[in-house]
Structure formats: C-alpha cells, structure tokens
UniProtKB/TrEMBL annotation, chain A:
<dbReference type="InterPro" id="IPR039315">
    <property type="entry name" value="CheW"/>
</dbReference>
<dbReference type="InterPro" id="IPR002545">
    <property type="entry name" value="CheW-lke_dom"/>
</dbReference>
<feature type="domain" description="CheW-like">
    <location>
        <begin position="1"/>
        <end position="136"/>
    </location>
</feature>
<dbReference type="GO" id="GO:0007165">
    <property type="term" value="P:signal transduction"/>
</dbReference>
<dbReference type="GO" id="GO:0005829">
    <property type="term" value="C:cytosol"/>
</dbReference>
<dbReference type="InterPro" id="IPR036061">
    <property type="entry name" value="CheW-like_dom_sf"/>
</dbReference>
<protein>
    <submittedName>
        <fullName>Purine-binding chemotaxis protein CheW</fullName>
    </submittedName>
</protein>
<dbReference type="Pfam" id="PF01584">
    <property type="entry name" value="CheW"/>
</dbReference>
<dbReference type="GO" id="GO:0006935">
    <property type="term" value="P:chemotaxis"/>
</dbReference>
Amino acid sequence: MEKVLTFELGDELYGLPLSSIQEVVEPAGLYPIPSAPAWYLGAINCHGTILPILDLPGILGFVSGPRDGKMIVIDGGAARLGFCVTRLGEIVEPDDDNSPANGRQLPECCVERVLDHCGRMIHLLDLTALLDRLDRD
Amino acid sequence: MERPMDMAKYRELFLSETREHLDSMSRLLVELEKQPDDADVLAALFRQAHSVKGMAASMGYGEMAEQAHALEDLLDDCRRAGRISPEAIDRLLRGCDRLEEQLEALAAEGKPAPDPADSAVDVGIEELPANALIVEDVDEDGPKSSPAETILLIDIAEHAVAPAARALLALRELERVGEVLQVRPDRETLLQGAPVRTLRVVLRSSAAAERIDAALLAMADIAGVRREDETEQEGTELPRRRREDSERSVRVRTELLDQLINLTGELLTTRTRLQTAHRERAVADLEAGLDQLSLLVDDLHYRVLQVRMMPLASITGRLPRMVRDLARKTGKRVELRIAGEEVELDRSILEELADPLIHMLRNAVDHGIEEEGVVAVRAWREKDLVLIEVSDNGRGIDPEVVRARAVQLGLVDAERLRAMGERDLFALLCRPGFSTAAQVTETSGRGVGMDVVKAAVEHLGGDMEILSAPGEGTRILLRLPLSVAIIKILLVAVGDCQVAIPITRVHRTLEVARDELQSSGRQLVLRLDEEVLPLLSLRKMLRMPGRPVAGNVPLVVVEMRGQRVGLVVDQLIGQHEVFVKSLEFPLDRLPGLTGASVLGDGRVVFIIDPQGLLEAGRPAAEHAA
C-alpha cells in the first residue's frame, strides 16, 4: 500500500497519498485575498509562487475550531494550493484499503476510499472532487 | 507506444503553423483580387497550400491533406493560366474556411481528424451551395441525420470580461450549424450588455451533439455546455477544460535563445568571480562583481520578456479577408491599410486584443464608411507603450447626436453635458447600451462592442480614446503596455488587507475632509472640478465590514463603465513597480482579481480590477437587499 500522510479534520482521520503532496510548510506570512469566499484563509509566498490556503475543515463542513499551524501544499496536477487542517498527523502505511465503511460517504464529503489502519478509519481525500467543487462554487 | 507521444508533441506546432499559413493565404487571396495576374503572389499562394498539404499528410490528418491538395490543384491551374478568376478566388477562400474549420475542430477535440463518416454534418457545410465545395465527395458521404431540436445551456466563464458579448458570439456560432429558435436572455438584453452567466438556447440542427459542443467549447470564455435534460451531469465538462489555457506554447527565435545561452554563460563567470572575491575578502572585486551581476540580471529580464513578444501581424493576418467580406456584404468599397505590423507586444496582450480589433474594424466599415473609403490600422511604439490606431475617413461622429442620446439615456445631466469636452463626450460611446447608429446592421449590431473594447483594453492595463468630427472620419486610439509582466501599481490599504490598483486605472488620488462629502440619494458624493463623483467603499466591494467615515478620507479616482468614481480606502500607501504573476486555478476563479505580485519585502498583494470587482459584487448586493 502507498504511504499516506494523515491529518485530522474535526475528530475524523483523513489522509492523502504522499505522491500528491508537495510539502508541508509553516508559512511566514498569510496574506488576505481580496473578495475571496471565507474558506480562502489567505495566500502564501511559496518559493516565489503565490498559493491560496484553503480551510479544509471549513469547506467540508466541520465545525470551526483551532487549526494546525502547519499547512499541506498539494500538487494535484490541475492545481497547486495549500490546506489548513485541524491537526497534522503522521505518515502511515495503511493495512487494508477495503474497509467495510467504504461507499457509505456522501459525495460532498470528497472521500475517495476508506482505508483501515490499526483499527482506525482513514478517509482518503478525493482531490479531484474537491477541486471540482472549488470550480463550481 | 512512442508514436502517439510524438504526435501530441507536434500537434500544437501543426495547429499554430497551419493557422499562420491559412491567415497568409487569405491575405494573399485578397491581394490577388486587386491584381489577379500577379505571378509572385500566385506562386507564394501555391507554396502555402503545398506546405499545409505536406504537414497535414505527415501528421496523418488525411481529410485536411486532401482538402489542401484540392486547393493546390486549383492554384496550379491558375498559375499555368497566369491569372486567377474571381470565381476561383471565392472557391479558394471557401476552401481556406473549410480547412480552418477542420483545424479548429482538431484543436477543440484534441484528437486526430474527424471520421469521414460524420464529416457530412460538419460545421458550416450547409450554408455553401454544393458546387462551391472543393472536395465535393465530402458532401455526399454518409447520410445526414434529420434536424432535431435540443435545448442547450451554455455556461459563460465567470471571469469573462464581457459575458454578453461572448454569449452573442456563441449564438452566432450556433447559427452556423442550425436554426436558433429561442434564446434566453433574449438578444435585446444581450445587446445591452447584461451580465449573463448561462445562455439557454433552443436549437434545431442536424449537426451531431459532440460537434456542436466542440465548436462552442473551442470558443474563449465558454465554461461548459449542457443539455437541459441532462442537467444532473452538470460540471462534468469543467475539470477537463480547467487547465487547457496553460498548455499554450511559444516559438522562440534561435537568435534569442543564443543570447539567453550567452547570458547564462556570463552569469556563471560572474558567480565564480564573486565566489573568489568573497573567499579572498576582496571588497572592491565584490562590488565590481555585484555591479556586473545587476547588469546581467537586467539584461536577462529584458530578454526573457522578449520570449513572450510577438508581432502585431500575428493577429492582423485575418483582417484583410474580414474587411473584404464585410465590404461585399454591405456593398461598400473599402480599402484596408495596415501599418506597423512588425511592432511587438506581449503574447497575452495580443490574444486579448484580437476580438476588440475586429469589433473596431466592423464598426468602422458598418457605421463609419458611407459608400467608399479607407479604413486604416496603424501601430507604433512610444517609450514603453504601444499605440494602436483604428481610423476611417467616413462620416465621423456628430457630437450633437451623442449629446442628445446621452440626455435621452439619462447618462449625464444637461448642464454638465454642455461643459463637456469632446474627449469626455466621445468616451460616453463606451457606455454599455450606447449607440448612435440609426439602424441595426447584421454585422455589428448597433455599435455594440465599444464598451467591450474598452473593458478589454483596460483589463490589459491600457486605455482608449475616441477622436472624431462630422465628415472627418473617426480615430480610435488604444494605448497599451508593451508587456503585462511589469506594471506600476498604487498600493492602498483597507483593514488588514493591502491591494494594488494598476496605475493606468487611476485618474488621481486625493484626501478630502469628511465635511466636504455630501449625501445624494443615500449615496455619498464629492464635488470635484465641476463634477459630482459618486463614492464607493472599497471595503464594501471587498465584502469587508464597513467603518464610519471620519477625519480625512483618502480617495482613489478611477473610471468605471465610462464614469469617474471615487473609491474610498483606509490608506493610500504609495506607488510601486511590480512584476505581475498571473493567477492559477483556483485563484483565477475569483472575480475582480487580475493578478498578484510579491513585493520587495516578500509580502503578497493582489491586483484588483475595480470594475470587475463591482460587477461581481452587484448580484450579491441585490440579493441582500
């Protein structure tokens, strides 16, 4: 199984395959984006590229609360952007990608698959679905 | 598996080169029309057709190769006869059109030439008489499906500068493939420049659905096409198209590449020199090395910008043909003169300029020229600006007619109108819905489009001016930056947010005392040089909480929709020269943002287009009310 970086959104555990992650940053400055919807937390200067930082828990409808200071920068092919999460987890290698919880999620949750790891469910984030959602909103 | 990869690599090149060949072919044909026995031009035409054939054949686009071959044959006959007949010119022009359609279909589909089976329902064929087709068998192949009615929902991209104009263009495209039975919003509304997001069209057409979609999606600013009975699939078209813009390629002259390589060499030498100076703590050498480095970096910057530059000729190529067709349609004798095609501009500016240029020429032929006249396009450099002038020696614009129309539309009060100079007066022509043309014409509606032209020019950080007098023709002057990469901005602060406004959009800045402001119809206004400026809060436009206006109020005077307004900001910070970064998805989806920049101290600021911001904010504001 491919290694996955885990993170918490609210009290659920989510994950992204390492191949879709460019880096994890602790940005020096987060600059406001004029006229952007609330889930755009701001923009960072990431090695000269201007990247938007999105409030992932906010987009997916988790209650607002504290956010981890570190942000995940993804390179989803179609877009480069950063996410804030509730709390950053660790890199794990899931046991099984055939959790019985699969297929029970609503499409608006942007969950691609559910993985099992040491008895915990890791919800693999569906980046394409998420980007499509940003495209439409 | 290597072959498809190779093909994909060359496809872009094929598309751009063939486009250039077709442009110059139609230009040569229009030239030949004036002098049908010019052997040099005939020979040049033959070579172009031959190149298109060769390239299409080697790419495996059989249908296009065949079509080009037919043109080549016809040209060969003409060459031997030593002259070309008017009928042959018409046939050749239609042949070029057909090739262009095939090319655009190719570009839209992203796959090799269409199956011969569905070429019978190809876009545009219906409108040609059968004997006009150069490859005749194409029309006989395969049965035509009978016309069917479909309801199309066409989504206009959110960032579109002039959505109504895009919608009208889409309609025109649809009219080429079938009969438009019903449109919502209706044409009248679209002609007024209404902010349309989705166009609903009832279309009767025998063309295949994929083909209609491909033709629409190939147009700029069309975000998606849906059918009313399949709305649940909404959005399926979007992800695939999202990134297409970024796949554009640029061809670079080898000379320029050599210069870049030389520069890199010099930079490497300078690095070594600096390293040595640093190791030896030789301050004088360090300083000399840094001076050298700064010169080289400036030079590098200049050359890299050159890579993006293209001559104006790349968008004027199709103008002679267009003016010729327009002149025929209107029965006027129009001569087109183009000068300064070698002037270079940034590629992205040229792309945005192509449509406005066509708009202006159409207006000139339709409304300027009466029976016979000259339309001229002239371009030249002035310092770091490029000036483009479109002029005609036609009837000109009567200021009295403009005044009367302005009063009728209630744009300006009569007193102010009397005091208005002609420069400001003609600027009124760029207000949406304004027109002085007495009747509607088929080609350019009723002078619609000057607002579109103005918006496009301003979006690029330029401005435009209309000069005219009755009986003395009309001149439209566009002032454009050479390159969009570096611009001057005014930095302002609202709350904890700093935003940049392109200096070309700023008329002036000033600070006024609170008690100089007056309220008029619940709108704060300021009397300034005989003019009453409405004031808008930038805070509100950026959807930030308002704050009471007190003390000195900093204002930025900008023009929006042809009218000066004062933007109320919290603080004027100052002018900067910045390198503009274009925005990528998802930032490019946000309304009113035209770019971003990293300031010298590493801070990120966004560059706003006040008009775009206001238009984006309007529906939300109405919603709240």
